[in-house]
Every structure is written in C-alpha cells, then in structure tokens.
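U., I forgot to send this yesterday:
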Amino acid sequence: MSTAELIYEKAKSLPGQLQSEALGFVEYLSRRPAAQTEAAEWQRLFRRTQTLAAEQSLTDDDIAAQIAAYRAGQ
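Result:
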C-alpha cells in the first residue's frame, strides 16, 4: 500500500473536524516548497539591495542636496 493510500485510510476513520484539520495540514505541506522558493527570492533581493548603496557612492552632501531640493518642491 502506498503512503498516499495509508494517509487516505487513516483519514477516513477520523471524525469530520479532524479530517478538516488533516486536509489543512496537507495543504500547508503542499505550499511549503513554494514558500521556500519565495523566501530564497526575497533573500536574493535583500542581498542585491545591500549592494546598491556601494554602487552609487552618495556623499552626505549629495543626500543633503537631495533633501533640500525635495523640501523646496523640486
């Protein structure tokens, strides 16, 4: 008997509420690989954004000028 068949047989004997909980857990497990992929994509994005500041080399004077221009409505 396959694992899926064993799960099915055991789930059949559970009361309705526990069957719903089991289904929720199976759905959670099926989404987990997608969540891991998404987390890896976020980590890549965070690493990339950390390198942006080094690539642009803004000085404090540059930042102050940008703030002044924004405040002046430019």
